[in-house]
Amino acid sequence: MSESNSSGYLQALFGLSGKTAVVIGGTGVLGGAIADALAQAGAHVVIVGRNAENGDSRVKQIEALKGSAEFFAADSTSRSDLEAVVAHLKAKGQVVDILVNGAGINAATPFLEISDEEWERIFRVNLLSVKVACQVFGQAMLDENVAGSIINIASMSAITPLSRVFTYSASKAAVLNLTQNLAREWAEQGIRVNALSPGFFPAEQNRKVLTPERVASIMNHTPTNRFGDPEELAGAVLLMAAGKAGSFITGTNIAVDGGFSCMTI
């Protein structure tokens, strides 16, 4: 196969030209890397978040690489804010083809000290935001008869809970359950719903829990013996987002974890 034919084949499998992707939480490190990957595959990316400085910076990075992106200020838990994103795109003649739910927060609080406020705050960002976004953008996909892809960012802690992050683990486990339920619900309508569970990638939400002792424990249980780079999420994201290569993938969880999930003792 010639180089040009190979490039065309890969474009047909993984290319996202003409697609619109909404990345909620795209102002963060991992969400921003996901936005980069989608843009470089040809999608127009709408970065949704509350930090305008980070959002505008990410847009400039994408545009510098000849990608297409814009920032939309919104609260991931606000239905009206997310409905405004749909209305904004509709006014431009665009529909949502890809949704990435990447907003998330964490805390390392001993179980008996977890307040109701902390529990509700983490569940609100990590789970309610996913529920609301799937309702708002899922409805938009159904209304426009879009064969869409929804990617919910879960966690390895959703599968086997990590110590000291009780609320985070519980909320992410619920994200996996919701992902499977929606995949079953919308499969016949052509909407695929999958989850991505990153292993250990240094980011804003986990820096506070990465003590030297915890880092040593993580490395002992990660065969690759290192943290992941945000760009290493790109392959899994593009597979799940791609209308051709990922067309038969729904209701699954892809772990990008350096082998963490296969380690025992």
Put the structure in a nutshell.
By secondary structure, the chain is an alpha/beta fold. It has helices at residues 3-14, 29-40, 52-64, 79-91, 116-143, 166-186, 212-220, 234-241, and strands at 20-24, 44-49, 68-73, 98-101, 149-153, 192-198, 253-256. This is Putative oxidoreductase UxuB.
CATH topology: Rossmann fold
- Which spans of ≥5 residues are poorly predicted at pLDDT below 50? none
Write down how many β-strands occur, each being a DSSP E stretch of 2 or more residues.
Answer: 7
Order of helices and strands: HEHEHEHEHEHEHHE
Helix tally equals: 8
Largest sheet: 7 strands, parallel
Q: Biggest sheet: strands side by side, in what order?
A: 3-2-1-4-5-6-7
Q: Kindly provide the radius of gyration, computed on alpha-carbon positions and rounded to a whole number of angstroms.
A: 18 Å
The tally of domains stands at: 1
Strand residue percentage: 5-15%
CATH superfamily: NAD(P)-binding Rossmann-like Domain
CATH class: Alpha Beta
Structural class: alpha/beta
The rounded distance between the terminal residues' Cα atoms is 45 Å
Shape: globular
Mean pLDDT: 93
Helix percentage: 40-55%
